[in-house]
Amino acid sequence: MKTKTKANFLTLEMFETIEIIELIDRAIELKHGARAMDLSDMTVANLFFENSTRTKCSFQMAEHRLRMKEIPFDVSTSSVQKGETLADTCRTLEAIGVDMLVVRHGETGYYEQLQNELNIPLINGGDGSGQHPSQSLLDLMTIRETFGQFTGLTVAICGDLAHSRVARSNVDALKRLGARVVGSGPVDWADPTLGIEHVGIDDAVEADVLMLLRVQHERHDGTMAFDPGDYHAAHGLTIARYGKLKDHAIVMHPAPINRGVEIASELVEYPKSRIFEQMTNGVYARMAILERAMRMKKEMEMGTSR
Ligand code: NCD
User: Fold this and answer.
1) pTM flag (> 0.85)
2) Is there a single domain that holds both residue 128 and residue 146?
3) Tens digit of pLDDT for each residue in 154-165?
4) Closest ligand 1 atom to Cα of 126
5) DSSP bridge partners of 300
6) C-alpha 76: how far from its chain's center?
7) Helices (H), strands (E): how many in the chain?
8) 3 pLDDT exceeds 80?
9) Are 73 and 164 members of one domain?
10) In which band, very low, low, confident or very high, does the pLDDT at 5 lie, cut at 50, 70 and 90?
């Protein structure tokens, strides 16, 4: 662990590689029926300032499975609408006794300042175009379940790389775990800061893992013309390209999917697709994340960990 705020889960960069593997393996163990921690003495609030189906519901499902009690929080009916800041909202929840916060927010790196103002664990459910560590963990879990390891694998991440927190979280972790990562998609959306080779989609389909991304329209300034059919033909997974995938290759997508844009609609349910399995895995990955945060919190309170 490279940070003083041990119980937080903000980025995968915070963790040593061995710790990432431990989390993945705990998630897989939970999926296979291992006994989960009983956190029935713990309360949690999920603060989603950006839209979410999967991340929010699977955190809630993970919380249920760990018997945590959720304090419902809805941004649209909260005092955020009266001008309260994110930090004051979070401190309020801490003051009333909430043990942990899961936060998704549109501001990249919103947690940088916030983490210093809280004494309860903060779990990042996605920050702007920054990081999405719980998604990354479930993606890594899905790859490990399929291939057993990462060394020797090529993972092609395809689409709106520049605006994708999923890409940013995954590239670093995958490289550290030993995979080769390449990017694909419109060159205008290539991101040199990711430090990966950019290839065309017809080269990307030679990878072992094809990870497709949704075009992040909400993070664009609206000046670029976009035609879904043209995008699909030039950068998407078409039926013809699916036919060129390796026998053992898998197709992933964090969803929501725009069918017919980044992937041909029928391919979503084809055998190489792991898209719905990723969603199932997301619950176990988040159970592992929550268990760790609560274990750390308890250890810190007992003074057995600094
Ligand atoms: C992703 C996100 O919100 O970053 N979705 C998710 O959490 N499963 C990807 C996206 O919205 O495109």
Assistant:
1) yes
2) no
3) 999 999 999 999
4) 4
5) none
6) 24
7) 10, 9
8) no
9) no
10) low
**Is 284 strand, coil or helix?**
helix
In terms of C-beta density within 10 A (0-12 exposed, 13-18 middle, 19 or more buried), how is residue 102 classed?
A: buried
**Token pair in block for residue 136:** 């990354």
The count of domains in the chain is 2
Q: Which domain holds residue 60?
A: 12-132+280-298
Give the amino acid at 133.
Answer: P
Give yes or no: residues 104 and 61 share one domain.
yes
30 and 62 belong to one structural domain: yes
Torsion of the alpha carbons at 21, 24, 29 and 34, rounded to the nearest 10: 100
**98-115: pLDDT as tens digits:** 999 999 999 999 999 999
Contact 118, 145 (CB under 8 A): no
Do 86 and 154 fall within a single domain? no
Would you say the CB of residue 54 lies under 6 angstroms from ligand 1? Answer: yes
Task: Find the helix packing angle between 54-65 and 133-147, rounded to 10°.
Answer: 80
Coil, strand or helix: which one is 166? helix
Q: Is the CB of 254 under 6 A from ligand 1?
A: yes
Distance (angstroms) between ligand 1 centre and the Cα of 166 equals: 7
Q: Are residues 121 and 159 in the same domain?
A: no
Q: Which atom of ligand 1 is nearest to the CA of 255?
A: 8
Q: Which residues are catalytic?
A: 54-55, 82, 104, 132
